[in-house]
């Protein structure tokens, strides 16, 4: 047993402490599926921290924002599975009162990080770069607090906050996923999983297969995986956890598909046009 353990390869794995990531990685982290010759060392932290760890190439396999992927595409391959895509829904702009778009662009907006896809989508929505907006940057789980306590007029909400904001007495000003769908006809690409290129193509394919099997296992054993994901729900009621996981872990999560990949290309193309990412960036997937 010791010899086998010593022969295993440790893979550093990063994902966020929210219900959909916990659901996806449950079978992997709890050894519900065969893990071949790998041992996974988890880092569970907010998405912006994961984005920054990827920028430093600190993780072998990590969840990250599609926006952040643009900055590490030379060092990471995007996996075909693990996508978080908004199918006509996505990050939401909420406030104590209803604001129109022409009003919001002049307000202070609390955002969950400068490398998040939510921030990039916000910039595309206004047609302005981040430095042209009045932003209050804070961890994603403090955005409600920032609005409630007057540090920002509007909050850009991600994760389960997208469906729990009403409990905070806030109103919806805009759903950026709906806006994107109306604008492009495509789902909104928010998050993905990526693997360090230096692992080598063969190893990347093996690891991708394990993650895909973990997602499949969770979908096949939904109740057990949901019970585990509930630990990362920050007090959100069970029906909302179920709803949120269903929004972001589905058939698209198993494979981007043609439309999903088109959505990423369009998202990045518009980011390039706005000057938010390097024009030389190309997206490359694990084969």
Description:
- With 287 residues, the chain is an alpha/beta fold.
- It has two domains: 2-86 and 189-274, Periplasmic binding protein-like II (D-Maltodextrin-Binding Protein, domain 2, 3-Layer(aba) Sandwich), CATH 3.40.190.10; 92-184, D-Maltodextrin-Binding Protein, domain 2 (3-Layer(aba) Sandwich).
- The chain contains 14 helices and eleven strands.
- The protein has helices spanning 2-7, 19-29, 47-55, 66-72, 101-104, 117-126, 143-148, 161-164, 176-184, 201-220, 222-229, 238-248, 251-254, 257-274; strands at residues 9-15, 38-44, 61-65, 76-78, 84-86, 92-95, 108-111, 134-137, 154-157, 171-175, 188-196.
- The strands form two sheets. Strands 1, 2, 3, 4, 5 and 11 form a six-stranded mixed β-sheet that branches.
- β1 (9-15), α2 (19-29) and β2 form a beta-alpha-beta unit.
- The model has no long low-confidence stretch (mean pLDDT 92).
- Pfam families: VitK2_biosynth.
- It catalyses: cyclic dehypoxanthinylfutalosinate = 1,4-dihydroxy-6-naphthoate + dihydroxyacetone.
- The active site is at 159 (proton acceptor).
- InterPro entries: Menaquinone_biosynth, MqnD.
- Pathway: Quinol/quinone metabolism; menaquinone biosynthesis.
* Overall pLDDT level: 92
Q: Regions with pLDDT < 50 over 5+ consecutive residues? A: none
Question: How many beta-strand segments?
Answer: 11
Task: Kindly state the percentage of residues in helix.
Answer: 40-55%
Q: How many discrete structural domains?
A: 2
Kindly name the structural category: alpha/beta
Total DSSP helices: 14
**Major sheet, described briefly?**
6 strands, mixed
Question: What is the beta-strand fraction?
Answer: 15-25%
Remind me, CATH topology of the largest domain?
D-Maltodextrin-Binding Protein, domain 2
> What is the CATH C-level name of the largest domain?
Alpha Beta
Order of helices and strands: HEHEHEHEEEHEHEHEHEHEHHHHH
């Amino acid at each position: 047993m010791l010899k086998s353990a010593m022969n295993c390869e440790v893979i550093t794995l990063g994902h966020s402490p929210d219900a959909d990531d916990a659901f996806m990685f449950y079978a992997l982290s709890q050894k519900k599926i065969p893990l071949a010759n790998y041992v996974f060392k988890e880092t569970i932290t907010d998405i912006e921290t994961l984005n920054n760890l990827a920028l430093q190439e600190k993780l072998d396999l990590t969840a990250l924002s599609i926006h952040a992927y643009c900055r590490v595409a030379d060092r990471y391959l995007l996996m075909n599975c693990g996508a978080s895509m908004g199918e006509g829904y996505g990050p939401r702009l909420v406030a104590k009162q209803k604001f129109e778009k022409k009003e919001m662009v002049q307000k202070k907006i609390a955002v969950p990080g400068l490398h998040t896809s939510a921030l990039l989508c916000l910039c595309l929505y206004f047609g302005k770069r981040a430095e042209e907006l009045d932003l209050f940057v804070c961890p994603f789980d403090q955005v409600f607090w920032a609005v409630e306590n007057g540090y920002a007029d509007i909050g850009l909400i991600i994760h389960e906050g997208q469906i729990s904001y009403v409990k905070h007495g806030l109103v919806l000003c805009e759903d950026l996923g709906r806006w994107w769908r109306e604008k492009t006809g495509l789902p909104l690409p928010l998050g993905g999983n990526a693997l360090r290129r230096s692992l080598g193509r063969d190893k990347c394919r093996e690891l991708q297969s394990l993650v895909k099997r973990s997602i499949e296992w969770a979908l096949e054993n939904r109740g057990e995986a949901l019970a585990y994901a509930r630990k990362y729900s920050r007090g959100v009621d069970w029906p909302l956890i179920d709803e949120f996981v269903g929004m972001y872990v589905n058939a698209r999560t198993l494979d981007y598909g043609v439309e999903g990949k088109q959505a990423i290309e369009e998202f990045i193309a518009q980011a390039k046009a706005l000057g938010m990412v390097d024009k030389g960036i190309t997206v490359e997937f694990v084969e």
